[in-house]
Amino acid sequence: MKKFIVISAFLVMVIATQANSQSMTTISYSMGLATGDLGDYVSTFSGRGFTMDYRKMVQPNVGVGFYTGWNVFFDERPYDTYTIDNRSLTGKQFRTVNSFPIMFATDYYLKPGEDLNPFIGLGVGTIYTERATDMGIYRLTQDAWSFAFTPQVGFYYSVNRYSGISLAAKYNLGLAGGDFDTTQSYLSFNIGYMFMGN
How many domains is the chain built from? Predict the structure, then answer.
């Protein structure tokens, strides 16, 4: 968690130093749906999350920068007998996942200069994933910093020359690592407000 805060603070400083360049900063409300192994662990749709994207325009249709955020997933499992690390426990199970992606990102804009501008992009970096399984007084935690990819598609609509609204879908894919021997992945659906700088 401390690493996440330090890296996020550094990225905010980078934004401030690039304020004179043509740029876009987007703060989004993020909803998530776990997939694959992570989806087997927490199967419910999550409405708890946010993302922050920054892009500096290096060409009229190409932006480079970063993407970070935080998504939380929660699932309550019924009263049953569960086997964890060769131990069998009986009771209700509460499962929580925190996911923190930190990515370098590039977007390609299909209609630069127009109010409605679709884009595709790719982020490459890391995701910190933490799972917590609670049963009664017992808690099992697993975590990992994983090499990760995040392809995304979306569009933004310019309200005026300084702001806009963004909709994007991201597929966050963390490779196996740490306590996880399989990939940890989820879809996020993001609705954001975009600040445009010159």
Answer: 1
* Cβ atoms 38, 97 nearer than 8 A: yes
| Three-class DSSP category at 13 | helix
Give pTM, 2 decimals. Answer: 0.83
* CA neighbor of 152 nearest in space, from 110, 97, 107, 116: 107
Is 33 inside any structural domain?
A: yes
| Per-state percent for the chain, helix, strand, coil, to nearest 5 | 10, 70, 15
Q: Whose structure tokens read 């550094």?
A: 10
Q: Is residue 4 part of a domain?
A: no
Residue among 71, 28, 69 nearest 47 (CA): 71
**What's the CA gap between 99 and 131, in Å, rounded?**
9
Could you give the CA distance from residue 97 to residue 86 in angstroms, rounded to a whole number? Answer: 22
CB 146 within 8 A of CB 184: yes
* pLDDT, tens only, 56-72: 999 999 999 999 999 99
